[in-house]
Design a protein that fits this description.
Blueprint (H helix, E strand, L loop, with lengths): L4 E7 L2 E7 L5 H8 L18 E4 L2 E4 L12 E3 L12 H9 L8 H14 L5 H7 L11 H15 L2
Parallel strand pairs: 1-5
Antiparallel strand pairs: 1-2, 3-4, 3-5
Helix pairs in contact: 2-5
Bound molecules: FE2/S2 (inorganic) cluster (FES) (2 copies).
One FE2/S2 (inorganic) cluster (FES) binds next to loops.
Length: 159
């Protein structure tokens, strides 16, 4: 019989008890078991940032992270950011500025931005660049993304 482990953690505010193969990654669990497909699989090698989620508030790539590494922690995915009837201000700012082209990188970008803005509500340019350094976008050239981050920061500070 195949070995399983039990991993308990908080996923988007809800307690989860996962009985899984000890080798399963957080990304595979999110996408294949929870069907939270907003977290993308761009490379599976820790390079592109499409798989970014928040682990205890820290932007973290999930594609090589074993699920058992998040035991007892809080995991937040892009699905946890917005309510069905209302986008998160970061999502709204990305749309308002036109910082989305194909959109594949966007959930990971938004997660990285959320982690940064929670710590730096009034970020300087260097903090924005640092926050996005692990997120690759092949479409936008980043200028609009940085503008969207500045707008989101303003909207969060002055709702
Ligand atoms: S899918 Fe994880 S870094 Fe690319
Ligand atoms: S919008 Fe296409 S990869 Fe970023």
């Amino acid at each position: 019989m195949k070995k399983t482990v039990v991993v308990r953690f908080i996923l988007n505010g809800e307690e989860v008890e996962a009985r899984v193969d000890p080798e399963i990654t957080l990304l595979r669990y999110l996408r294949d078991v929870q069907r939270l497909t907003g977290t993308k699989n761009g490379c599976s090698t820790n390079h592109c940032g499409a798989c970014m989620v928040l682990v205890d508030g820290i932007p973290t790539k999930s594609c090589l992270l074993r699920l058992n590494r998040v035991a007892g922690k809080k995991v937040e995915t892009i699905e946890g950011l917005s309510k069905p009837e209302e986008l998160h201000p970061i999502q709204a700012a990305f749309l308002a500025i036109g910082a989305v082209q194909c959109g594949f990188c966007t959930p990971g970008m938004i997660i990285s931005v959320k982690g940064m803005l929670d710590r730096h509500p009034e970020p300087i340019a260097e903090q924005i660049r640092e926050a996005l350094k692990d997120n690759i976008c092949r479409c936008t050239g980043y200028v609009k993304i940085i503008d969207a981050v500045k707008l989101a920061a303003r909207w969060i500070r002055h709702p």
